[in-house]
Structure formats: structure tokens, C-alpha cells
Design a protein that fits this description.
248 residues, alpha/beta, Rossmann fold, seven-stranded parallel β-sheet
Length: 248
Amino acid sequence: MFDLKGRTAIVTGAGRGVGAEIARHLARRGAIVAVNDVVDERAEEIAAEILADGGTAIAAVFDVTDHGAVATAAAALEREVGGVDILINNAGVPAQMRVAKFVDSLPEDWRKYIELNLYGVMNCCRAIVPGMCKRGWGRVITISSGAGTVGLNFGVSPYAAGKGGAISFMRHLALETAASGVTANTVAIGLIDNQADPSVTASLAKTIPVGRLGRPDDVAALCLYLASSEAAWMTGQTIGLNGGSPTS
């Protein structure tokens, strides 16, 4: 079950955190994994770790907000390891993310969130999904956030706009590609433990019904299912992965 031997995957923003764990899980199930990150050292470190663990991985350094760079990287991957079968759109937190009320923000503050969380997803899908459709098999999984599904008073509205836009885009993409054997789903994750101050982590955990924050491996396990042949009848869905929290 969930055997990915013979499949090639790319995970964006996989140089750390949730993306890195998704890459590890896919590789352990036999996929060739392209580890993307905008920082070459991060991509290379995770790719090397996967290789040391007996998996197959390469570093794929490019900025998902640059359509030309994405297209060039996709073409290079096809030449090097074959067409991409599994696309995980995980990149989503821009450098120097700032929390602020929308009324205190400026237009130049909004752009990086929309470009990364919506255009980044669209750029990768445009470069990779046509090949999936041509081959008759593909899995597209976008990592979104509860911020894209409900209103939150956290000062993250531009970030939420990008996440919500990607959710809507994926629903439409799923219907356009379903007959070609390509599924498209979104995972809207809740609060993930980022190993911050333990007292802060404990306080946040109390707000979640299961009593703990999410872990990167929680997200990776769901992605492993969605990337598999067993998930062939699952498409166009937004799955809330949040420990039962009604607001994330």
C-alpha cells in the first residue's frame, strides 16, 4: 500500500519543516524526490539526507514565484529523472513574514503572500500538470492553511488571501484534469509545532481538541496517501488537518 516506486515527485519549499518531512516520506516509499527550495544549501542538505537514508533525491533550487525559472526546472527534471508524477505545492511562508492588521498594511506588503501562495502554485501546475495529463497519471497536492478557509483575528489576511485563492484554484484544476487521471487536492493544516518556546507551545496546544499541535509527519502521512494510487477517487477536496480545531 502507498507504494511510490517508479514515481517522480517534486516538493516545493522542502528545505525544512513540513516540506522536508513530506520529501522524506515520499522517498521512503520509493519515489525519486526533487527537493525544491529557494536557498540552495537547504535543498542540498535535505537531498543529501534522503540519499544517506537509502532514498533517491536531487536538489532543485528555484523560486516558485518566477514562472520562467519553474518552467526551466521542470524541463531539466524531465530530462534528468523523467516526467514529474507527483507535485506537492508546499512553499508558502515568505521571508520576513509579518503579522499586522489589514488596515495597517500597504499594497507592497500584500504582494509577496499572493505571489508565493497563489502564483507559486499556479506556476508549478502550469509547468508540470500538462505532462501528467499526457501520461495519464498525476497527483497534485497543495499545502494550504486553515487561514484560507475561515476568518482569523491574527493579522494574516494577505497570507489568507493567497491560501484561499489556491484552494479555489485547486478545486477547478481537479475538475479540468480528472478525466486525464490527474487528481488535485488541498490539505488545509492547522497549528504546527515549530519548536518555539515550550510554554507557548503548551498554551497553543490547549486550544486544540486532541491536546497537541500538529507535527510535520502528520502532514506528510496524509500527503503520502494523496500521492498514491490508492487515492485515485479522491480529487477536488480540501481536507482540514487540524486536530479537530473548528477554527483552523
